[in-house]
What does this fold into?
Amino acid sequence: MNSELKKELEIFATQIRMGIIEGTYNAKAGHPGGSLSAAEVFAYLYGKEMRYNPKEPKWEDRDRFVLSKGHCAPGLYSALAYKGFFPVEDIKTLRKIDSYLQGHPNMNTVPGIDMSTGSLGQGVSAAAGMAKGAKYLGKDINVYTLLGDGEIEEGQVWEAFMFAAQYKLDNLCVIIDSNGLQIDGKCEDVMSAEPIDEKMRAFGFEVAVINGNDFDELETAFEKFRTVKDKPFAIIMKTIKGLGVSYMENEVGWHGKAPNDEEYKIAMDELNAKMKELEA
It folds into this structure.
């Protein structure tokens, strides 16, 4: 990846992280950990990979994105806001009773949301249906969906994977954020899905295993996705939950907890320092 694009994406990922902290702090609730681990993939999808138009969110020929791990809406909202789908200032209304930015994505109220999600395991099924629909209509549309490694303990996920392989959905990119933690602890202790890569291959996917917080590796994986034919594609991203905020990194307690005043200041100081470093 050229250095200029990488710098743009790193700045975008840092803005996304700022939005995550801003949103969850003002809401006094939400899910910062898994939102932060996915900041790079949100930045890559909306900064380089996907075809969309913020001024026309329902443009028929846009690529689709489904946040199957819907509780990580703070990350997606931040990406959409910084790309002009709605005002960045509105991130502060996250989860407020009269806000359109609720704790899980709602396609009926939020510009840029392609599917309402929340119940884990269901988003990937909708994404597979969208990909099949695009094939049926002869549309050049790619569908991307992001799942958590805890989420893939759900049986419905594997039914969707079978469907994707059965219908050779090479326009479907399944992204698994493998940060190793879920609400009750380590995934390996709660219900291990490993080896995820071997299982995905057995279910008929072409698979890339990468560092999901590295833009060069993300670029290589998404470029490979575009070359694979007659098979769905899976990107298994090894990430750090809570990345970008020192005290949240690899701490399971930050799966679904908002920072207090002191924690908010520490997080924003760290992210502002990162931004100054990038902009220097």
The two ends are 20 Å apart (CA to CA). The CA atoms of residues 135 and 169 lie 8 Å apart. The first helix runs from residue 3 to 27.
